[in-house]
Amino acid sequence: MRISDLILSKQEIKEDNARSKEINVYRIILLLCSTFTLLLWYLFINAFPDSYDPLWVRIAFSSLLILVFILTYFKNFADRIFYLNYLVFIIYSYHGMALIYENDFAIHYILEFIILVIMISLAFRSKKQIYIYLSLIFISYALVCLVFSDHFIEVFVNISLLGIFCAAILIFFDLRVETEKELRIREDLLNTVFNESPDAMFLVNPASSLITNCNDRAIGMFEFGDRKKVIGNNLNFLLKYPYSPGAWKNLKKKVGKKRFLIQELEFKATSNYTFWGSQAITEINVGKIIYWLVRITDITERVKDKKTIEENRKMLRQVVDLVPHQIFLKDNEGRFILVNKAVADNYETTSDNMIGKKDSDFSNSEEAKRFMEVDREVMDDMKIKIIPEEHLTDKTGFTRILQTTKMPFYLDDESKPGLLGIAIDITERVRDKQTIEENSKMLTQVIDLVPHQIYLKDSKGRYLLVNQGTADFHQLLKDEMIGKSDYDLLPEAEVNNLRKIEEDVIQKGRSRFIPEEIVTDKEGNKMIMNTIKMPFYLSDRQEMGILGINIDITERVTDKKTIEENREMLMKLINVLPHQIYLKDSKGKLLLVNQRLAEFHQMTVDEILGKSDFDLFPEEQARHFYNIEQQIINTGAAQNILEEYYYSKKGKIVINQTTKMPFNISGKNETGILGVNIDITEEKFAEKALRESEAKYKMLMAQASDGIYLSDQEGNILDANQKACEMFGYTLKEFLTINIKKLVDPKGLPDAPVRIPDNNDRQSIIVERRFLKKDGTPFTVELSAKLLEDGSHQAIIRDITERKRVERVLKDNEKKFRALIENSSDIILIVGEDFKLKFVSPSVTRILGFDPERLINKSLFEFIHADDIDSFSKFLSEILGEADRTHIIDEMRIRMNSGQYIYTEIVGTNMLLDPVVSGIIINCHDITKRKQTEKELLNTNFELDSFVYKASHDLKAPLRSVMGLIKLAKLESSDDKQHVYLDMMNKSVLSLDSFIKDLTQFSRNSRMEIEAREIKFDDIINESFGNLKFMDNVEKVTLNKILKIHTKFYSDLTRLSTIFNNLISNAFKYHRFENNNPYINIIIETNPERAMIIVEDNGQGIDQIHLDRVFEMFYRASETSYGSGLGLYIVKNAVNKLNGTIRVESAVNQGTSFIIVIPNLINKAEKNEG
Amino acid sequence: MKDNVNYVMLVDDNDTDNFIHKRVIELTGFANNIIVKSSGKSALEYLDTNKNNLSILPDVIFLDINMPIVDGFVFLYEYENFPESLRQKCKVVILSSSDNKKDIDRIVDNEYVINFITKPLSEEALEDLKKIL
């Protein structure tokens, strides 16, 4: 028994097994009891003949038990039979008791009774029933003893004996039942554990990795659906990756360990759903077989959680790393547990490298000591501590200032607190503060030095800060100015105006530039100021103020006027020039342009001013100009660029010749650029087009498939392409030294004299000309020459030798084809889709007497006999239906010019799709003569047939009469001698009769059509044999037919009959009747292709010398033969007619066999029927 | 049929054959009366004349196929026009020297023909015939 069965069989199956076991026990007990009782009777009667023991009672019981035994085999009774059984047992027991009583408590009967009780007890199902049974027996027995026995001791002994005995049985059964129960509980427990386990369990054969069983959970987990689908599978089947650690090969390495566990494997259910699981394997021994109990726990959730935590932690690390501040976690001992990238960077190491190390490993001892003291304090006091400025020296020795926060931090797995620290680098911030202070100081000094007025006002216009220049203007001290407003310093009207502007600046938050502001100073002088006022946020007052700069430009303004006048004149001048003229500052901004330039950019002059090349040209181009200009500015050397491409933003291309020179812009005190662009686009494009066309020409010449040459007026070759050289067989170098006139084949000259094209030939002239190659072989070319303006000429030559040849062949072919069609005895027609004649071969005149010309466009149907129109239409539709295939109609009557009809065979091919023919080709072949011959032949055949029929009948009729007369004579005469004569006469007449029959058959065979019909061989053979029934000795021959008709066989019935008739009658006629056992065997086997027929006998046989000739006409191989010599000849002919083969094997006095193979005409027959 | 046939009719144009057949029937005692007709036409006439007198109509007609004018086939064609009672009584047996299969097939298909016997008529043939009558 297999452990798999033990553990996994379903409860019901188990109960079934238990029951069948119980029933078997019953059956054994029943059999034992039934034999036991009879055997004991025999023993007892022999030993104690006097005892009372009627045999019939025992036999009755015995047979009753046997009956019960038999009934147990009927399923329907099996359950109820126990009760009947119990009844029999109890009666049987009472019978035992009765015997004891009747025989005066004889000891052997008591023993029998005890054994009987033991056996019966075994048969009971439950303890209860045994109790009832035993107490019943015991009480009855005690009563019997008490009532019928006088002797007190005897009663006591008897009762005790049975009592002890019954008790013993009870105890024994109790024990047995208990053990069984315990086993069952354990088994149930095991089953429950196995089946109800939340894990999937498999029993696996460790030697093969095949699963031998599994629990329900496993089926659910892997979605098998059915236990059968699991069993027999390989364990690897469960895995997602067959090479993972749970794979068979890897598991095998662990064999020897009794238990092992593989964590986190990926498994795959049949639905391809994958999950994580752990695999625990326990090796268990069942007898000699080792099994693996594989327990798979679904730990997908756990694994998922773990992965999530890991991911979270990773994310945290990344986030922490991204924080620019230093974050670290230390344990109670001061070792780093976690540091972020900023910390690690600070020490120029990696975070991993720092874990587990202390400050002392990175910082110098003094710092480390200081850090650790603080750390200790935080951890011991459990307080957050912030160190505003901590100085820390990094690896490069640079001191950084950090603002550090340290707080106690409880780590999960430690009782003592750790420390979480965040250090923010404030080095820069501290440093910035210092710088600002310094800058502020410096700024004051600087602004004091500036010759302009610089000042800062609050929103109310009060001065907060002024520079020396401002103070000087107002003729006050700097400090005196602070707190004053313009109202205190300037005339009111001016100030009102000023305040308006300033308030506007503050409100809108936008700078204002006042190019020319008139300010009156203390002396009353009007000063022209260039003023900038800008909003300025006063952080300490939290309001907007005004920062202003006033520049005195009084002098400058007066100069400007003169300059502008000059400039206007200049502008007029430059606008007149056709070139672009411009002036740029050092940054490339256009300061001055002429009209021309503005036009180029499609702008007005005003629009374009102030723009740079970057606004006007694509980035790349602008960058290029800028670089050149910077170079000019730097070196101070003018540059003349002969050819420069300008791509305007609008995509226009212009080519300029440009001159750029440095130009000192006095007003700006910087070097700018003065440039002049002269447009040379058109010239350049013309040049380029010329170059390209020349290149194209060169390419064309080189790649042309025709030869091209250029010659001067005299015919000297100036240039030629490769192809031309190849044609003539010269190299280019040689070719250039040759005059084209010398290459002309002089033989061809008379036909086409050489002519150099003259000025009148504006068009190309094309001629065919024969040239000679370098090796002297002539070749024909088509030459196309054109006179060029300078008197030279260019020619294109094409080799047409091949074309000429093909043309000639085509012409020949056409000629042949024409001849063929014209002289054909067939009529060849081409008709269009509408069946109108498109072409008619001239032969129509000869055959039908029509004029071919007149037939064109007439309908084809006009010439078809009215009776044939239908079949002809069908024929045409077949042709139309299938292109390029030839269709034939055997017989069609066509009208001649004379109105008569001739028979033709018509062959048609649909070539409508052929572009050359585009019609149906129809070939009419005159078969009138053939038709006539056929008709005549048919007539002749019919006449012959009638003749043979008539002749054979007329020959036969008198013969039959003679035969009748002979018979009659024999009947009416009793003279023996006369009988002999009459018999001889009869024999001769019979022989003549059969000869006539042979002749008729032969004549039929050669002429009649084959008619395929289903052949019933049995009927044919019987009929042939029936024909022999009046012959002598017929009863001596045994006919054996072995017919293996696997397939229906179709052939010609008449001919097969002829064959069988002849062969069977031959076999019979030439038999040896003295032979002990003359026989004729006919073996026939058919299949879809053929029939094999063997006719064999053990007769006289044929001598080897005759064997080759037996099938010859009138050849007779036997001396005893009274046949015509036609039989086998007819057979041979008939077999040939059926396309079969016949051969003969024979040995003298041994026998002869004819082997015939005839094809099965089943297909032909079915076609006929279909 | 156990008793002898009362009337038989021989229809054959060949007198020799008629003689032989008559003799054979006489000798074997196949029939009590023999009517001999030497042409199909005279045979038909006889039947037509006596078509209402069933008692002297033949039980068996031995018919030759190959006869001038009214041959076996024509005879059978005409025979179909006789009343039902006559056709019930007179059974036709073909007696011919032809063993042409086509002839035999054609004529045996006729519903009034009960047998085909190849000439010459023999005792065995008559005995066989007796069995199927």
Can you tell me about this structure?
The complex is a heterodimer of chains A (1170) and B (133). With 1170 residues, chain A is an alpha+beta fold. In chain A, α7 (127-148) runs antiparallel to α8 (152-196), α33 (976-1007) runs parallel beside α37 and α34 (1017-1027) crosses α35 (1053-1069). Mean pLDDT of chain A is 79; it is low at 1-9. With 133 residues, chain B is α/β, with parallel strands linked by helices. Chain B has a single domain (5-132), classed as Response regulator (Rossmann fold, 3-Layer(aba) Sandwich), CATH 3.40.50.2300. Chain B has a five-stranded parallel beta sheet with strand order 2-1-3-4-5, sandwiched between helices. The termini of chain B are close together. In chain B, 35% of the residues are buried. The model of chain B has no long low-confidence stretch (mean pLDDT 85). Classes of the chains: A alpha+beta (1170), B alpha/beta (133). The A-B interface holds A 949, 952-953, 956-957, 959-961, 963-965, 967-968, 971-972, 997, 1000, 1030, 1054, 1057 and B 14, 16-17, 20-21, 23-24, 27, 66, 97-101, 118-124.
**Largest β sheet strand count, sense and barrel closure of chain B:** 5 strands, parallel
Name the biggest interface: A-B, 20 and 21 residues
Q: Give the averaged pLDDT of chain A, no decimals.
A: 79
Distance N terminus to C terminus of chain A? 67 Å
User: How do the strands of the widest beta sheet of chain B line up side by side?
Assistant: 2-1-3-4-5
Q: How is the biggest beta sheet of chain A arranged?
A: 5 strands, antiparallel
Report the strand count of chain B. 5
- So what's the overall shape of chain B? globular
What proportion of the residues of chain A form beta strands (DSSP E)?
A: 15-25%
Query: Which CATH-level-2 architecture of chain B?
Result: 3-Layer(aba) Sandwich
Number of domains of chain A: 9
State the helical fraction of chain B.
Answer: 40-55%
Q: Which structural class should the secondary elements of chain B be placed in?
A: alpha/beta
Indicate the proportion of strand residues of chain B.
15-25%
Unreliable sequence segments of chain B: none
Tell me the number of strands of chain A: 37
List the domain count of chain B as a whole number.
1
- How confident is the prediction overall: mean pLDDT of chain B? 85
Number of helices of chain A: 38
Overall radius of gyration of chain B: 13 Å
CATH class of chain B: Alpha Beta
